[in-house]
């Protein structure tokens, strides 16, 4: 018999680094199963695709210009410099890709699209999939818990009071076991919602469309979020959740999409000098810049604490005068892009001050490193509470980007914490690392879910376009 033509899957990532990186890790798994794949990309993100395309040259790319918007700067795809207040506009503008993608799908008469896999920030791809009669899987680069909180909030919006106080505690009776949150910790996307405002309403609708998807594929694993898997299915009405993480980094995590400042071997050699689990790694991810006063206090506290550390920072971070020279024998500063996965995997690294971006969280857990939470924005506060209060694999150190910690106190906390060995939270973090490794091993829970998902996709009819 003639071999069956593989289903053609259209992949649509959300053009922000923290979303694209795990999306590409996921796409890599599909490419290993010989699906016919096309990936939509905006021009400035094309370079992020290189590691995947070099491994899987048969993947097609569909490069579409970022839709112009009168409210956004011309080079907005480079979203690093986008103020949080413009993020809703950014999400809203992307729906401008609906028509060009629709036209492209209709033109694919030789190899028609059988399914769409798109980021959960691109809810408008749901009506698009419906219009062309194919199923859509929503991909989430965040925690199931964080995703559920965001969707719950947007669903219950009519009850929201505009006068909600920043410190008012919001509870989630519909999510069993959920911590409570001060209003200010809930997603900026939700807090900036204004009833009747067209952008707000479009962003809300964008998330609500996800409920109609074929299912959610989430970069997480059962041992970490098992407690929160039922609510999205039972209460929110998602049809299916596939927990497929932690997805293995395509390039073994060597650069995770950035252009490295210095070589990985330099920092690895530096780390080789120190005892097991004695070094603190600090990074606030690919977007956040630590405000000047916070950076000053953190630097001084590090110096006073005497701990050994690697601090990966954005170029523009301002440090106290002479700091780098004074700490040269204790700490290493990486300005620009750090080889984060290599650092976390080094046996000398035991602790990680992180903003709790979900990729950083998974990388830390996988490495069995204990997290010190310092959430700044987006879903990070929700992730931090999941780690500290629900799964108890992390310790809070500070939060937010406005208030400044007290220098002496922070120095004391860092000194005492980094010297700890074998505490309950460290043991739990280590155990979670073992669970993460087990989940993605052949036969493990995430391995099986991913296999199941890919089998579902394989079963799809190769569609005829007429
Ligand atoms: N990253 C890196 N080097 C850096 C900064 C970040 O390799 O100097 C990687 C990090 O390993 C992670 C991703 O970039 O994979 C950041 O994603 P995360 O979800 O943690 O945070 P975001 O950048 O989206 O805020």
Describe this structure in words.
The protein has 466 residues and is an alpha/beta fold. The protein contains 19 helices and 15 strands. The strands form three sheets. Strands 3-2-1-4-5-8-9 form a seven-stranded parallel β-sheet, with helices on both faces. β4, α5 (125-132) and β5 (136-140) form a beta-alpha-beta unit. α6 packs across α8 (198-208), α12 (292-305) crosses α17 (407-418) and α15 crosses α18 (424-440). It is globular. The mean pLDDT is 91. Residues 17-18, 21, 256, 258, 283, 285-287, 312, 337-338, 340-341, 357-360, 363 line the site of uridine-5'-diphosphate (UDP). Belongs to the UDP-glycosyltransferase family. It comes from Carex littledalei. InterPro entries: UDP_glucos_trans.
Shape: globular
Average pLDDT level: 91
How are the strands ordered across the major sheet? 3-2-1-4-5-8-9
Oligomer: single chain
Taking pLDDT < 50 over at least 5 consecutive residues as the criterion, the unreliable ranges are none
Question: Which molecules other than protein and nucleic acid are bound?
Answer: uridine-5'-diphosphate
Strand content: 5-15%
User: In DSSP terms, counting alpha (H) and pi (I) runs of 4 or more, how many helices?
Assistant: 19
Describe the secondary structure blueprint for this structure:
Layout: E1 8-12, H1 17-32, E2 36-41, H2 50-55, E3 60-63, H3 87-94, H4 98-107, E4 113-119, H5 125-132, E5 136-140, H6 144-156, E6 169-170, E7 181-182, H7 188-191, H8 198-208, E8 215-218, H9 222-225, H10 230-234, E9 241-243, H11 264-272, E10 279-283, H12 292-305, E11 308-313, H13 323-326, E12 331-335, H14 340-345, E13 349-354, H15 358-366, E14 370-373, H16 380-390, E15 394-396, H17 407-418, H18 424-440, H19 445-459
Parallel strand pairs: 1-2, 1-4, 2-3, 4-5, 5-8, 8-9, 10-11, 10-13, 11-12, 13-14, 14-15
Antiparallel strand pairs: 6-7
Helix pairs in contact: 3-8, 6-8, 12-17, 15-18
The chain binds uridine-5'-diphosphate (UDP).
Uridine-5'-diphosphate binds at residues 17-18, 21, 256, 258, 283, 285-287, 312, 337-338, 340-341, 357-360, 363.
């Amino acid at each position: 018999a003639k071999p069956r033509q593989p289903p053609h899957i259209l992949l649509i990532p959300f053009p922000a680094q923290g979303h694209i990186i795990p999306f590409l890790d996921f796409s890599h798994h599909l490419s290993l199963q010989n699906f016919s794949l096309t990936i939509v990309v905006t021009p400035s993100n094309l370079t992020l695709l290189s590691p995947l395309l070099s491994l899987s040259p048969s993947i097609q790319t569909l490069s579409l210009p970022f839709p112009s918007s009168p409210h956004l700067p011309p080079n907005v795809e480079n979203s690093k410099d986008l103020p949080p207040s413009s993020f809703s506009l950014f999400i809203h503008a992307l729906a401008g890709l609906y028509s060009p993608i629709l036209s492209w799908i209709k033109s694919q008469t030789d190899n028609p699209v059988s399914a769409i896999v798109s980021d959960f920030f691109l809810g408008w791809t749901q009506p698009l999939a419906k219009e062309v009669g194919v199923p859509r899987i929503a991909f989430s680069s965040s925690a199931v818990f964080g995703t559920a909180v965001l969707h719950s909030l947007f669903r219950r919006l009519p009850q929201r009071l505009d006068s909600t106080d920043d410190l008012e505690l919001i509870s989630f009776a519909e999510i069993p076991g959920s911590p409570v949150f001060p209003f200010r910790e809930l997603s900026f996307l939700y807090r900036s919602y204004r009833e009747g405002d067209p952008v707000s309403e479009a962003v809300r609708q964008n998330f609500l469309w996800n409920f109609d998807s074929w299912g959610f594929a989430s970069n997480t694993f059962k041992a970490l979020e098992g407690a929160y898997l039922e609510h999205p299915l039972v209460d929110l009405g998602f049809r299916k959740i596939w927990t497929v993480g932690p997805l293995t980094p395509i390039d073994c995590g060597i650069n995770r999409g950035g252009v490295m400042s210095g070589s990985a071997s330099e920092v690895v050699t530096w780390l080789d000098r120190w005892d097991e689990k004695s070094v603190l790694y600090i990074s606030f991810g690919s977007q956040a810049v630590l405000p000047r006063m916070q950076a000053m206090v953190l630097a001084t506290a590090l110096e006073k604490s005497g701990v050994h550390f690697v601090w990966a920072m954005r170029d523009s971070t301002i440090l106290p005068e002479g700091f780098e020279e004074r700490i040269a024998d204790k700490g290493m500063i990486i300005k620009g892009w750090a080889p984060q996965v290599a650092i976390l995997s080094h046996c000398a690294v035991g602790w990680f001050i992180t903003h709790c971006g979900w990729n950083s969280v998974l990388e830390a857990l996988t490495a069995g490193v204990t997290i010190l939470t310092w959430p700044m924005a987006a879903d990070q506060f929700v992730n931090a509470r999941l780690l500290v209060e629900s799964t108890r694999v992390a310790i809070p150190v500070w939060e937010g980007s406005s208030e400044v910690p007290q220098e002496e106190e922070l120095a004391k906390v860092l000194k005492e914490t980094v010297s700890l060995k074998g505490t309950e939270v460290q043991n739990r973090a280590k155990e979670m690392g073992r669970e993460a490794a087990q989940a993605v091993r052949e036969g493990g829970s995430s391995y099986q879910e991913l296999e199941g998902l890919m089998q579902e996709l394989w079963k799809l009819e190769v569609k005829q376009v007429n």
